[in-house]
Amino acid sequence: MKLGKCFKHAFNMVLHSKLRSWLTITGIVIGVAAVIAIVSIGDGMQQSLNAQLNALGGDIVTISPGFERGGGFFQMRGGGDGGGSSGPQATTKEIVLGRSDVQALKGIPDIALIDTNIRGSVDVSYLGKKGRISITGVDQSVWSQITTSKIKTGRMLDSADQNVIVIGGRLASSYFDQPLGINKMTMINGSAFRVVGILDDQSNSIYMPIQMAYQVIPEKTNGIYDTLVVKIKDENFLDEVITKIQDKLMIARHVTQKNMDFSVSSRKEMQQARADTMSSMNTFLLAIAAVSLIVGSIGIANTMFTSVLEKTKEIGIMKAVGARNRDILLIFLFNAAFIGLVGGILGIILGTILSGFMPVLMGGLPLARGTAIVTLNSITMALSVSVTVGIIAGIIPAYQASKLKPVDALRYE
Amino acid sequence: MAGDIIETIIELQDAWKIYKMGEVEVPALRGVTVEIKKGDFVAIMGASGSGKSTMMNLIGCLDLPSRGSIYLKSQDISKLSESDLASLRGKTIGFIFQQYNLIQSMSAFENVMLPLEFLEYDEKKAANRTREILKLVGLSDKMQYRPTQLSGGQQQRVSIARSLASDPEIVLADEPTGALDSVTGREVLDMLKSLWKEQGKTIIMVTHDLNLAKYAHTIIELKDGEILRISENHEVKDPVFKYGD
Ligand SMILES: Nc1ncnc2c1ncn2[C@@H]1O[C@H](COP(=O)(O)OP(=O)(O)O)[C@@H](O)[C@H]1O
Ligand SMILES: [Mg+2]
């Protein structure tokens, strides 16, 4: 029988197949959908990470007190929730950043700007509603040039500012009963502050001049900083400048590489660390997806075995009217491949839908904000994988079918 | 004299078929030797269990003998490769079964065309041939029907059409009327007869009904897997002698 004809008969077999075959297909559908969703979300995140890397912060370096932890430069960012976290926190009481460190940094010519930050959690009230919110004190004369946040309405902090704040988008719109708009007054730890700017983000953060922050965060002492944020002149020399900063601070703080009590990290490194985490997470999820593909293929093999049994009589008839072993083998192999293909196509559709929803589901994670991208690559991959899986699962049953003796097959009821 | 000129189309030489059922060996055929002439109408008769179907399967190359040889058109079938044997079978032999054995998911048209697809006929030629044959058996108007939409007699006619699709020299029919009422059964028999008389096909039919066996020219009687008697029915005008004259 010609190949095209074998195809036609295999296709008709799929069309006439029972519910059971369709259930089998589900296994493949889920596997492929998972692969597609994971790969496309991964691609999407990669792209948005790259975009972030390129768009902003390539020239920003952050210095924090404390010992560097094993893996990378993990640190709590934007979290005034200072207390209650793990190990190094206990030591930050003694290990701090101070004026002398700022002084040392000022001696590095590659540095353009230095922002000094402190953080804390304080009570904020507005129109009778109260909440505990993390605030960041910043050097308002340079903050607007260093921060990567964008203003939506109002303005950034200014050198002359005192009792004013810039707040995150969510805090403005929905934290309190009433929206907290521009020029509205809030009480922060007993002092009145006026909102001058609202950021274009979804955070609950508050930024204020650092001198005011010392007043409203009781546990912070003047001249002690939580982090120093540095903008360098040329981001192409990022790595060199980081080394210079480390060297300079080690001298100023009388420490060596071994007992270094501060860490210097760049946004780039942090993004990199995140990207690495992402990719290992992706690998993990892909492994799960692979398992479901394997389970799916076992399902196909199972269905194929049953279908060979069911079609034994037909195989006998076909052999009686001139089918060669090869014809039977091809018809059943193509049949298995078709099951894989149909599963693959449905899986791609489902996976595309899923990957559209996934960023919403994972919305809490800042990393997951990138939109998923279903690439031609992942479609081709998914289809070839599912067809291959179908064929592999179908080989043994198809071979068995082809080897049936015509008399035995015809006798089968 | 005539016999010397007439070609032997199938020959069984001391053919044995022994089925193994676990420890037990069931000898279904015990040393059958017979020659079937091209253009003959043969009825294989015998009681149930006498080995008729077993012999039919060997003649049709659906099975190989446990011992002995089978020659189809002078070729020892045990020496042919699987695919050559399949093609030879497809080209030379058409099968008609008691239970019709049509493929349920296919229309009458597709069922009849199937042998031609295995023989890799050109698509157009195959379709034309299929239509022609279905017309011959009087089913032109039912070509797109599935077996379940047809009566028993109609299904058997589809099955006859299928057996004729590749224009084989031999038509094998194992109890072709077994599932039909007597009127429809006779129609089928008439059809076989005209294939024999008008198209010169070799017809081999299994039956246990003496009335049906009367249609045949040669009658082979089996008993317990052995040939009891081979007789010629002289009331049937034998077209074979046309070749001999
Ligand atoms: N596949 C088989 N396995 C075991 N025994 C069989 C098989 N086919 C036929 N037989 C036995 O061989 C004998 C002949 O069977 P069969 O050729 O079908 O007889 P008939 O067609 O004349 O009724 C019977 O005893 C039957 O039980
Ligand atoms: Mg029988």
CATH architecture of chain B: 3-Layer(aba) Sandwich
Rg estimate of chain A, integer Å: 32 Å
Number of helices of chain A: 13
Helix % of chain A is: 40-55%
Oligomer: heterodimer
Could you say how many structural domains of chain B there are in total?
A: 1
The overall pLDDT of chain A, averaged over residues, is: 83
Keywords:
heterodimer, A: 413 residues, alpha+beta, 2 domains, six-stranded mixed beta barrel, 13 helices, 12 strands, B: alpha/beta, Rossmann fold, six-stranded mixed sheet, 10 strands, binds magnesium ion
What's a quick, concise take on this entry?
Chain A is of the alpha+beta class and 413 residues long. Helices cover 53% and strands 17% of the residues of chain A. Chain A has 2 domains: 3-53 and 273-411, no CATH class; 113-232, no CATH class.
Report on this model:
The complex is a heterodimer of chains A (413) and B (245). Chain A contains 13 helices and twelve strands. Chain A folds into two domains: 3-53 and 273-411, no CATH class; 113-232, no CATH class. Chain A is 53% helix and 17% strand. Chain A is α+β, with helices and mostly antiparallel strands. In chain A, the strands form two sheets. Chain A has a six-stranded mixed barrel. Chain B has 245 residues and is an alpha/beta fold. Chain B has a single domain (8-232), classed as Rossmann fold, CATH 3.40.50. Helices cover 36% and strands 28% of the residues of chain B. Chain B is built from nine helices and ten strands. In chain B, the strands form two sheets. In chain B, strands 6-7-8-3-9-10 form a six-stranded mixed sheet, sandwiched between helices. Chain B has a four-stranded antiparallel sheet with strand order 2-1-4-5, covered by helices on one side. Chain B is globular. Mean pLDDT of chain B is 91; it is low at 241-245. The interface between A and B is medium-sized, with 24 and 26 residues. The complex binds adenosine-5'-diphosphate (ADP) and magnesium ion. Residues 52-53 of chain B line the site of magnesium ion (MG).
